[in-house]
Design a protein that fits this description.
Layout (H helix, E strand, L loop, with lengths): L1 E5 L5 H7 L9 H10 L5 E7 L5 E4 L2 E6 L4 H15 L3 E5 L4 H13 L3 E4 L4 H4 L9 H4 L4 H6 L3 H21 L2 E4 L2 H10 L4 E4 L22 E4 L9 H14 L4 E4 L9 H6 L2 H12 L6 E3 L5 H10 L2 E4 L8 H9 L3 E4 L15 E3 L4 H12 L2 H18 L2 H20 L3
Helix pairs in contact: 2-17, 3-4, 4-8, 10-12, 10-15, 14-16
Length: 417
């Protein structure tokens, strides 16, 4: 079966062939691609945005890149690609960008079956974007924000605008792939006529076969995998950290991204007001020696950072099925996660970790303290989470399910359904 994927990021095999940096955010697609291609009856062409229009084959995977921003030209390019490759099915990964809508329109016009895979849902994320930030912070600007006309409020407006494209894409879709009660409910609200197909995701390869150990972790350390914009809730984690710091003077909070504290002149020119707000909170709460920004981490580096943590924390205001929770639980890192979106489909409160109301940093601090103070509880969470994650992120099972969905979708078309 000839499959064509529209992705938001580049696959690892293609990145190596083109000698460009891999996209750490979309690394989970590599696991899905490897699983699909273990069956020799399937071929894969990946279409993804890039600065140039390129095409070729990389280690058995075809690729087509597009740098086109004009919407009509983008759709025309997709039509040309579909006519040339003649895929049996198109899988649109994510609904966050206009190119997903353009590809759905192209497939409709060419009568090629397609399925839309839910990642996040920006139409819903927009409602949660401010994540309990003070009103005065939402409207403020740094030099960078003024120059780009892109402060926190305007960033939320971008999500709302992209959310309109997302809804139009889902309204065109006859078939949707999801994996949580939350995304199923959202899809039903948007397009009750779409066939919803359940399929779990596969994690990045580095997260299989390793296990967290209480003996090897850095005591009283936290890891939050993202902190760059309000939805990730790092400002709320800092409030919890201020509470914890009183009992644990050696507290460390690790996260990815460039440091927001004591930036160079150049960094100050380029930082967002949200990052300035994080820097102000770090000073206000006396956490200058506690918060560590790690920059951009590769897959293996991320894995090591998870294993180093005493507790993994997800403080987001909204998520669907966050791969960060999947990676943490697969490794068995004791986890405290906000009770948002589809998180409850990944872990059960009190069995695999703790879930808490995302707008309650005091509760977050309390649950972290319980794990810090009780190794038996941490180990119980670790073992239970790993067993559950091994079922959710089973590579073979998820690959088989994806192929089954493809056969179902194309079979319905062949039968005139």
């Amino acid at each position: 079966m000839k499959t064509l994927w529209l992705c938001n990021g580049i696959l690892k095999r293609v990145a190596k062939a083109l000698d460009i940096a891999e996209n750490p955010v979309s690394g989970w697609l590599d696991g899905a691609a490897e699983g699909l291609l273990t069956d020799g009856a399937y071929t894969l062409t990946a279409v993804f945005p890039y600065s140039k229009n390129l095409r070729g084959t990389a280690d058995g995977i075809g690729y087509v890149t597009f740098g086109e921003k004009d919407r009509k030209k983008m759709r025309a390019m997709f039509v040309a690609v579909l006519r040339e490759i003649k895929p049996d099915i198109v899988h649109i990964f994510g609904t966050e960008f206009y190119h997903s809508k353009a590809m759905a329109e192209a497939c409709k016009g060419e009568n090629i079956p397609f399925v839309v895979g839910i990642q996040g849902l920006v139409s819903e994320y927009a409602r949660h974007y401010f994540a309990f930030l003070p009103e005065k912070i939402i409207r403020k600007n740094t030099f960078r924000d003024l120059l780009r006309r892109n402060n926190i409020k305007r960033q939320a407006d971008v999500f709302r605008r992209r959310g309109k494209w997302e809804i139009e894409t889902l309204c065109m879709a006859e078939h949707v792939i999801g994996r949580t009660d939350w995304d199923k409910a959202c899809v039903y609200a948007i397009n009750p006529n779409a066939d919803y197909h359940f399929c779990n995701e596969t994690l990045r390869p580095a997260f299989y076969g390793q296990a967290w150990s209480a003996d090897n972790c850095e005591r009283h350390s936290l890891f939050a995998s993202q902190s760059g914009y309000p939805i990730k809730g790092f400002h709320l984690l800092l409030e919890a950290a201020a509470i914890l710091k009183r009992a644990y003077p050696d507290l460390k909070i690790y996260t990815t991204g460039a440091s927001v504290f004591n930036p160079t002149f150049s960094q100050r020119l380029h930082r967002t007001y949200y990052k300035k707000y994080l820097a102000d909170l770090i000073v206000r709460y006396g956490l200058q020696d506690s918060v560590v920004f790690l920059g951009s981490l590769k897959e293996e580096e991320m894995c090591r950072q998870y294993l180093k943590a005493h507790v993994f924390v997800l403080p987001s205001s909204i998520e669907n099925s966050p791969n960060s929770v999947g990676e943490a639980t697969m490794l068995g890192v004791p986890t405290v996660a906000s009770d948002v979106g589809g998180v409850k489909n990944l872990m059960t409160h009190g069995e695999d970790g703790f879930v808490y109301p995302y707008d309650e940093p005091k509760v977050l601090a309390w649950y972290i303290k319980k794990i810090f103070d009780d190794d038996e509880l941490a180990l119980r969470f670790s073992e239970s989470a790993r067993k559950r994650a091994e079922k959710i992120y089973d590579v073979q099972k998820n690959a088989d399910r994806l192929r089954e969905i493809y056969k179902t979708v194309t079979g319905k078309r062949e039968n005139g359904s």
